């Protein structure tokens, strides 16, 4: 398979094999667990990386902060966090997945009744509004709902607790929004975002948000967590498997809280989703991100592929459209063997300035093809010395990463290509990372990997950079008043003929281990 044409039809079940093909180190599951544990151990040693800062607040700010607490909760940073790992059927998972497995057994026990939407009048002819038939079939939950092959037009589907909802497969059972649906419509969501829902399973569909019903010149999203193909808001115990999402106004799949929360760094939104597993998903044409999480915890995203966003949720030329995004207030998110192509960011771990950063994120295997920034970790608004240091941008552990030929993109016209950028985050460990460039592509002497903007306690080991012939440094650690600090670099091989080039600002003190290259 030619990676530069990793298409919308790509089968993400091939991802693990493809990732191994382009890695220098071929690790089995046990070795991967060992390497991950080493990263967690190093993270634990850096307990000074997240000291609290005192802030002088006016009376007005104190009153506003108190108001924001009404719909927020404290973001707890676990400085001694270490993920407990397990191997299950040859794959690596967090040990808390056992809780998900137990919940799935409970779901099956409580959904012994099975119904078919066709028995309630649903017709898959691509013409009939079937919304009422779907809702009647689901009732108040505790039911397995089957959907046959066909194209079913709906005005949105709301899933109650204890619902097992399944179709005949991607391309076979198509759920599509009717032409008169408002722009804010979510195609599938849970029934109650305020009180919350639990134990919801979705499998075997193509979800068509029907973007063509809108003017081609309009932005496609309505703000906050509307306008997506599938939204779980305030859901405990959810599963989404083998689902394809196409052309959503905002996101293909969004695991989120009741509402997005912008109450400030150090706070998270109430009504979080938790213990949700997304597996074997595909998506393209998304206005913002493919798969994203907000203010939610204990999320697994595996064996999925996101590509070719429209970027239409943003101003043209400023589309921060990522294949996979772990966003504001997310905690304990696990990404394994996913792939992205032709996005702004392949994987972005981040937060907006007025929200808490994603914390304690684990990546085991990702293939990024022709993304502008293959791996991009940042907390916006907390990068410069004049800005407050991030309280929550803590904890990234990632192994088995491949950045294949990052490129310039019309999605974000002024953004220079990078295989990886680390900004603002503390306690970041990267091991077994292959960055493969296009030898004839003009990277305008820009660095391949950048560590910058007050990032600290960063460890890089087994880094392999090749074919970036027209790039600058293989690894650049930026100095100046916004310098990175406490950066440790282990084994690196690079593009330069006589060794990799690591460039560091004069204020930066690096620690080298197992070093064989050239530094400037």
From TrEMBL:
It comes from the Bacteria. InterPro entries: Pectin_lyas_fold (IPR012334), Pectin_lyase_fold/virulence (IPR011050), RHGA/B-epi-like_pectate_lyase (IPR024535). Keywords: Lyase. It comes from Sediminibacillus albus. This is Pectate lyase superfamily protein. The keyword Repressor does not apply. Gene3D superfamilies: Single-stranded right-handed beta-helix, Pectin lyase-like (2.160.20.10). Residues 115-331 form the Rhamnogalacturonase A/B/Epimerase-like pectate lyase domain. SUPFAM superfamilies: Pectin lyase-like. It holds the Pfam family Pect-lyase_RHGA_epim. One of its GO terms (molecular function) is lyase activity.
């Amino acid at each position: 398979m030619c990676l530069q044409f990793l298409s919308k039809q790509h089968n993400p079940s091939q991802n693990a094999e493809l990732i191994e093909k382009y890695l220098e180190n071929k690790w089995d599951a046990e070795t991967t667990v060992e390497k991950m544990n080493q990263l967690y151990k190093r993270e634990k040693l850096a307990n000074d990386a997240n000291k609290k800062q005192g802030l002088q607040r006016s009376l007005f700010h104190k009153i506003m902060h108190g108001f924001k607490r009404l719909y927020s909760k404290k973001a707890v940073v676990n400085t001694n966090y270490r993920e407990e790992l397990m191997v299950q059927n040859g794959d690596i998972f967090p040990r808390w997945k056992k809780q998900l497995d137990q919940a799935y057994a409970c779901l099956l026990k409580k959904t012994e009744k099975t119904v078919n939407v066709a028995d309630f009048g649903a017709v898959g002819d691509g013409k009939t509004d079937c919304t009422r038939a779907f809702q009647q079939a689901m009732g108040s939950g505790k039911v397995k709902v089957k959907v046959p092959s066909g194209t079913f037009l709906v005005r949105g589907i709301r899933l109650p607790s204890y619902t097992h909802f399944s179709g005949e497969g991607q391309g076979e059972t198509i759920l599509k929004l009717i032409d008169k649906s408002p722009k804010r419509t979510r195609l599938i969501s849970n029934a109650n975002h305020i009180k919350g829902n639990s134990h919801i399973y979705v499998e075997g569909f193509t979800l068509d948000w029907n973007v063509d019903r809108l003017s081609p010149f309009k932005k496609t999203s309505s703000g906050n967590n509307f306008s997506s193909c599938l939204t779980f808001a305030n859901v405990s115990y959810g599963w989404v498997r083998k689902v394809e999402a196409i052309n959503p106004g905002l996101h293909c799949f969004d695991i989120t809280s009741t509402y997005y929360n912008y109450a400030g760094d150090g706070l998270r939104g109430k009504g979080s989703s938790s213990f949700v597993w997304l597996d074997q998903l595909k998506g393209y044409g998304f206005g913002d991100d493919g798969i994203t999480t907000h203010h939610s915890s204990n999320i697994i995203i595996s064996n999925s592929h996101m590509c070719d966003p429209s970027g239409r949720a943003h101003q043209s030329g400023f589309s921060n459209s990522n294949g996979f995004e772990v966003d504001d207030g997310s905690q304990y998110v696990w990404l394994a063997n996913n792939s992205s192509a032709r996005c702004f960011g392949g994987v972005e771990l981040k937060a907006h300035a007025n929200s808490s950063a994603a914390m304690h994120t684990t990546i085991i295997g990702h293939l990024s093809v022709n993304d502008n920034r293959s791996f991009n970790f940042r907390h916006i608004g907390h990068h410069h010395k004049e800005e407050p240091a991030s309280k929550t941008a803590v904890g990234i552990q990632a192994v088995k990463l491949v950045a294949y030929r990052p490129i310039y993109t019309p999605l974000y016209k002024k953004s220079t290509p990078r295989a990886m950028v680390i900004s603002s985050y503390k306690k970041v460990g990267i091991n077994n990372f292959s960055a493969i460039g296009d030898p004839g592509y003009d990277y305008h002497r820009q660095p391949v990997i950048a560590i910058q903007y007050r990032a600290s306690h960063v460890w890089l080991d087994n880094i392999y950079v090749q074919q970036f012939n027209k790039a600058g440094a293989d690894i650049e650690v930026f100095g100046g008043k916004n310098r990175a600090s406490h950066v440790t670099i282990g084994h690196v091989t690079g593009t330069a003929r006589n060794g990799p080039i690591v460039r560091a600002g004069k204020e930066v003190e690096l620690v080298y281990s197992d070093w064989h290259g050239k530094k400037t």
